[in-house]
Amino acid sequence: MCFASTKCATVEPGKTWELYPFCGRSTCVVSEDQPPRLLELVEDCGPLPLANEKCKLDEEKTNKTAPFPACCPEFKCEAGAKLEYPEIPTVAPVPEDAEVKSTTTAKSA
């Protein structure tokens, strides 16, 4: 069972729950590795767009209390303007056979 902290409840693998008061949902999944582990797959609206004076939050279409994904913000842009999003850095997975290195710092007396 996964623990859904926003509901203060346990959830069976394969089940999904809303992350209210946040805009998102989670699903309890079983990993494919051995031994299998329980994981929480989180879906959300992604990053907010970069500031743009020609694009504004459409408050009439944005419903923050709706279930995901309808709760995600919607934007309205002037003609010719478009939303730009921040670049999200990614981290390459560590190969299973990678050597673990440790560093020790010693102080002299």
Automatic annotation (TrEMBL):
Signal peptide: none annotated. SMART domains: SVWC (SM01318). Keywords: Secreted. GO terms for cellular component: extracellular region. The keyword Metal-binding does not apply. Pfam families: SVWC. Residues 2-77 form the Single domain. InterPro entries: SVWC_dom (IPR029277). It is found in: Secreted. Transmembrane segments: none annotated. This is Single domain-containing protein. The lineage of its organism: Eukaryota, Metazoa, Ecdysozoa, Arthropoda, Hexapoda.
